[in-house]
Design brief:
The chain is of the alpha/beta class. Helix content is 29%, strand content 24%. It has a single domain, classed as Vaccinia Virus protein VP39 (Rossmann fold), CATH 3.40.50.150.
Length: 220
């Protein structure tokens, strides 16, 4: 295993992004350049804490976080006995996550790359847990099947996916800075895209706009 906080850089010859993907990348870069993005709160959400520490907790195993930001939740999982790999599209987020993991004294395998192109990264799996805090809902819809396939190929039997996402933008609301972000994510979409998974739970979030926590389980 890599040393604590080791960050892997992608191959510069990796598959180029299309115009919509570039729009997403630029928008995320702006958030990190401006300071702390709104989704990167530095606090592990209680939904993940319940899954890891609750009455019916999932036993520690191998975890992959998609869109890890500055590493809050990857570090939390590592502290609770998980072997963790974590991916983010923004290099400055991965650099900060690396610093934080080293300061925390935990081993997290950090990778700068695209959650929809896991084959270009060294994350073969299998994984027992996938965690996604608003990564999927920010992915252009035409790349979401690739995301689902990447996780499915790397999922151990019975693996869990805990995902937080924004719902579709209500009709009449201003168009977001990235047009595809208006699509959000729904339970029906996850049913359609994640073949071989069972949608166990959908819980509304507590945000001022429609958000949801989705829990899926890979077929055994």
């Amino acid at each position: 295993m890599d040393q604590p906080g080791t960050a892997q850089r992608p191959d510069p010859a990796a598959t180029p992004r299309d115009q919509e993907e570039e729009s997403v990348h630029r928008a995320l870069e702006r958030y990190y350049r401006a300071g702390k993005p709104p989704w990167d709160t530095g606090v592990t959400p209680p939904e993940l804490v319940t899954l890891v520490e609750g009455h019916d907790a999932v036993p520690p195993g191998r975890a992959l976080e998609l869109g890890c930001g500055t590493g809050t939740n990857a570090i939390y999982l590592a502290r609770h006995g998980w072997e963790v790999a974590a991916v983010d599209l923004i290099d400055r987020a991965v650099d900060r996550a690396r610093e934080r993991a080293e300061a925390a004294g935990v081993t997290v395998r950090l990778l700068h790359g695209d959650a929809t192109r896991l084959d270009e990264l060294d994350v073969p799996g299998p994984f027992d847990l996938f965690f996604d805090l608003s990564c999927y809902c920010g992915i252009p819809p035409h790349r979401r099947d690739a995301y689902a396939a990447g996780l499915t190929q790397r999922a151990a039997p019975g693996a869990r996916l805990l995902m937080f996402g924004y719902g579709p933008e209500p009709v009449g609301n201003p168009v977001p800075e990235v047009a595809s972000w208006a699509a959000g994510v729904t339970a029906d979409e996850l049913h359609a895209r994640f073949a071989g998974w069972e949608l166990l739970d959908v819980t509304p979030g507590t945000n001022s706009v429609p958000t949801f926590w989705f829990t899926l389980r890979r077929d055994a």
